[in-house]
Specification:
InterPro entries: ATL_DNA_repair, MethylDNA_cys_MeTrfase_DNA-bd, MethylDNA_cys_MeTrfase_DNAb, WH-like_DNA-bd_sf. With 108 residues, this protein is mostly helical. The chain contains five helices and two strands, in the order H-E-H-H-E-H-H.
């Protein structure tokens, strides 16, 4: 797998996610023809250039939750991700889960 091209494909798809909607890592991987590459989707987002305006916060795990990250990754801090999604109208329950039936985006 050519990671640079894969990352660009991830970024192009994430850029299309509408405000107030989310996609999962696995869903993105499957749509890009790499159904076992969910973790690589996470790596792609982790490696976004600083200052990027890509809506990285709109990618969550298959349980409808924000995935924990390494302590050095302050740009993608889970609390920030939740705040950004809540600002888009997404509601989380007490377990930190959002309703995928309501918010999951399925591109054409």
């Amino acid at each position: 797998m050519n990671m640079i091209n894969f990352y660009q494909e991830v970024y192009a798809l994430v850029a299309r996610i509408p405000r107030g909607r989310v996609m999962t890592y696995g869903q993105i991987a499957a749509l890009l023809g790499r159904p076992t590459a969910a973790r690589a989707v996470g790596y792609a987002l982790h490696n976004l250039p600083s200052g990027s305006n890509l809506p990285w916060q709109r990618v969550i795990n298959a349980q409808g939750k924000i995935s924990p990250r390494g302590a050095r990754d302050m740009m993608h801090e889970p609390a920030l991700q939740q705040l950004l999604l809540e600002a888009e109208g997404i509601v989380f329950d007490r377990e930190g889960r959002l309703d995928l039936r309501r918010h999951l985006w399925q591109p054409e």
